[in-house]
Amino acid sequence: MSWLGQGISRRRALAGGAGLVAGAALPFSAEAAATYTNPVLWQDFADIDVIRVGDAFYYSASTMHYSPGAPILRSYDLVNWEFAGHSVPVLDFGAKYDLNGGRGYVRGVWASSLAYRPANRTFYWLGQIDFARTYLYTAPAVEGPWTRLASLGNVYYDAGLLVDTDDTLYVAYGNTTISVAQLTPDGRGQVRAQQVFSTPSGIGTLEGSRFYKVNGSYYIFLTRPANGQYVLKSTGGPFGPYQLRQLLLDLPGPIPGGGVPHQGGLVQTQTGAWYYLAFVDAFPGGRVPVLAPVTWTSDGWPVLQLSGGAWGTSYPSPVLPAPPRQVTPMIGVDTFDGTTLKPKWEWNHNPDTTKWSVNNGLTLSTATVTDDLYWARNTLTHRIQGPSSTATSTLDITAMRDGDRAGLALLRDSSAWIGVKREGAATRLVMVNGLTMDASWNTTGTGTEAASVPLTGNRLWLRANADIRPGAARPGTFSYSLDGVTFTRLGPAFSMGNSWQFFMGYRFALFNHATRALGGSVRVSRFEVSVP
Fold first, then answer.
1. 384 — phi, psi (to 5°)?
2. pTM tops 0.85, yes or no
3. Rounded to 10 degrees, what is the CA torsion of 212, 71, 436, 515?
């Protein structure tokens, strides 16, 4: 869990396997002339854990206060990814995650771990919440159903879960002081825990553990926020002793304006090649995954393969078996077919499940009476595709009531939106900016109208365009249409900030909340994310 503040842990900021052939060359062949380009996915998926089960790769990430939490992506080539599910179905860790008497912004699901246990053909997710407890969830498939197996009193901060070759469960965890715990065979308790490493003061902070066993040796990958990656290696067992080696430090990344690749996962392909999937701080869009090949020294240390002294913007594509099918694109059109939301959607905090439905269209009923979007329940979010993309939603406002607010937002700690205000018999289309939070995530601004036009019909199209190239504050713009063909700009450009402290990047967000009384609703029949 890291950011653009070297030597500072997030904890301080918020609280105050298979074998290898040593030295083997990557299987790049004449037939493997194709290349991939970094980032492999330009969306916000941070604190990466990546595993392979059979011919499929699975990728887990942080989601903080968004629900459901801990999304899982699937790929057959490490380059093209699709949504598969979520490990944490609901953030049932206290009322604040329901926006009930408190708020969970920048809390919730931090760096966590995904593992597969062949002995019982079960997926495991492990993560700590609020420095209070660690939770373990299991599922027979990444799509679910995911159920809570255990709530542990031990706080495994930034944990990496290892299923050893003898089926024992181990967890590597900690900030600066790194420890290893052995779990009971069923995962419901702890057998023992031991400190295995103390970070030298010259390095500063190490966290973000990922735990591996390769060729009989144990490895703990650790990140130095947010510019380095280190490796601990033990040939004496999971509890050490461990040696330390630097994998990368201040390495130029492949995204112009972005940060140093770090805090990711190591994975081996079916053909024996190894890859490291890390993320780059790339705000305002978030933390974005990049992929690079890894080789090994004769004495068993991983070596990142560079291009011109930097993380490459492109590499030869992994040589892998043909995929069983093409993955589902991460963007495109959603008509909310069926009766459930697709896993690309996440709510801002837990939703009130009685106030929304999907039935060949999405109905959002008002769930909160408030003038503050940051307090409004049932705000539905979608990641922004970089380097720039456009979201267009088709909205029916027939059932809105007096005082209701509904629309499409660019949502973060500084936000703006386009949408509808219904006041008595009058309905206006507005662009609102100036929604802000302070460093403790308290609301400091509920928004100011920057532009408005009267509205007479009940069907409209709302559009938000977001430029999320990193390195500077970037513009977001809003427009609308009454026929779905001709769009008219509304309001000034909104400056999307590029600070790291909120951790999550900007998202597109659909919302509908009341300012006077509940009872109104809107219907979204279509939502599309497109790129130029």
1. -85, 140
2. yes
3. -150
